[in-house]
Amino acid sequence: MTQLCDLIVLGAGSGGLATAFRAAHHGAKVVLLDPAPPGGTCVHRGCVPKKALWYAAQLAQQQPLAREYGFHGAGGTLDWERFRQLRQDYVDGITTRYEERLQKAGIQRVPNAGRLVDAGTVQAVDGTRWQAPHVVIATGGRPRRLDIPGFDLGWVSDDLFTLRALPGRVAVVGGGYVAVEFAGLLRAFGCEVSLLVRGSLLDGFDAELTDALAERMQHDGIRMIRPIEVRGAHRDAQGLRLDGDDMDAGGPYDAVLWAVGRVPNTESLGLEALGIALGRQGHVSVDDYQNTACPGIYAVGDVTDRKELTPVAVAAGRRLADRLFGGEPRARLDYDNIPSVLFSEPPLASVGLDEARAREQHGDAVRCYRSQFTPMQLALAGRREPSLMKLVCMGDDERVVGIHALGPGADEMLQGFAVAMKLGLRKRDLDATVAIHPTSAEELVLMG
Ligand SMILES: Cc1cc2nc3c(=O)[nH]c(=O)nc-3n(C[C@H](O)[C@H](O)[C@H](O)COP(=O)(O)OP(=O)(O)OC[C@H]3O[C@@H](n4cnc5c(N)ncnc54)[C@H](O)[C@@H]3O)c2cc1C
Ligand SMILES: NC(=O)c1ccc[n+]([C@@H]2O[C@H](COP(=O)([O-])OP(=O)(O)OC[C@H]3O[C@@H](n4cnc5c(N)ncnc54)[C@H](O)[C@@H]3O)[C@@H](O)[C@H]2O)c1
């Protein structure tokens, strides 16, 4: 028998949950399918457990600084198993709260994968069917696996969250968010880390800041091997070896982390039969309103080819539910100027255009301001570990089109500046703002 409802959501990750909750809030009868516990990548294999690792890494890094400040006996090694349990308890708490909220909101949760059998009908793997005028695809993605010999000898990011012990020597392959974050985290916990990068590091971020970050990572003991194309992996008596092109891939290693991007979960959804086009990498193509080519079917989050960030999936899902059920026919997410933070050491925060893209688009109308300084907390201990901040401005009235910050605190600093940019920030607005002293953030309003 086919059951009827107003909205079917495939996937209970960041995007699917946000869509379902907002639609239910507007009074829609919602069915939410996911074979996994609610939370998706962010809660179980992404942002949340990663940020827990980052907090622990920050504490590890504060210990030498405490000694430099004169603390005696500061320090100690991390009880990995205790920390792993704390992290898991925290994640379990989020999952439980989601389950309670879903029940309270009257959302029917189905612990099964689903696929579309026609435009408004979804079938779960056990054969149960639901029908609705609206179906949202929010099935997210998974780590990309390369078709090269020995790939299975290594880990992907999901595997790092189940580790019972840390490796000694580890190779991280990739140059994006996951590669750089995990290289930094593993290094902070004392692993010997090599980062093998095929092309540019952190494409899309401002090159001046990524160069500074690369320098800092090497200063912290991460061995950077680039440019290198890794063609496979094998094991010998000493450990794991990577097969590179002309360049020496280092090694032997105890572990390899493949961090070579992510692919969307779109294969078994029945989309092609409905005329829904998939992009080159398998993403669902959507318009500005999250509509696919098939009326009544929408997609949000990592399954689309937009920025793969939790707040993006959440915001797109909420806007979509407001449009379908909240009486806001023009509601849609503005994908411009989305801020993001890379939880490296130190963190790298960025919103808007980097200098290269700004110059591509606006030529000589671009003017950049920058400030390089050692934060007081580090300078006090005699360290020279500069932070770098940069404003990218455009036109005679110097509209701020990019803000980039690398340094301690950059992660918490950027959100407010991103609001200002959304409101049309000009350089003169920053000049007119009184600084907060002594902070690192004040540099952003004091650039000459
Ligand atoms: C290591 C790592 C760290 C990250 N850190 C950050 C960060 O710090 N900040 C940030 O903003 N973003 C971060 N991200 C990105 C963020 O996790 C994703 O952008 C976000 O989770 C995307 O949400 P989503 O709802 O689109 O998909 P997902 O969260 O992946 O959820 C998709 C859900 O769909 C389910 N599903 C799949 N197929 C089906 C089916 N056929 N039927 C029903 N259900 C199905 C899956 O089980 C899953 O639960 C990180 C990602 C990774 C991998
Ligand atoms: N802090 C955060 O907000 C955060 C953290 C992690 C992930 N994310 C999100 O998740 C997305 C995915 O992150 P990611 O790091 O998996 O992907 P990514 O797209 O950021 O980086 C993939 C990297 O793999 C490299 N690569 C691809 N194929 C390769 C190959 N065959 N050999 C060697 N290198 C190869 C690419 O050149 C690139 O450097 C990010 O784009 C980001 O949106 C966000």
From TrEMBL:
SUPFAM superfamilies: FAD/NAD(P)-binding domain, FAD/NAD-linked reductases, dimerisation (C-terminal) domain. Its EC number is 1.8.1.7. It is an enzyme of class 1 (oxidoreductase). It comes from the Bacteria. Residues 6-317 form the FAD/NAD(P)-binding domain. One of its GO terms (molecular function) is glutathione-disulfide reductase (NADPH) activity. Its cofactor is FAD. Keywords: Disulfide bond, FAD, Flavoprotein, Oxidoreductase, Redox-active center. Residues 338-445 form the Pyridine nucleotide-disulphide oxidoreductase dimerisation domain. Belongs to the class-I pyridine nucleotide-disulfide oxidoreductase family. This is Glutathione-disulfide reductase. It comes from Dyella ginsengisoli.
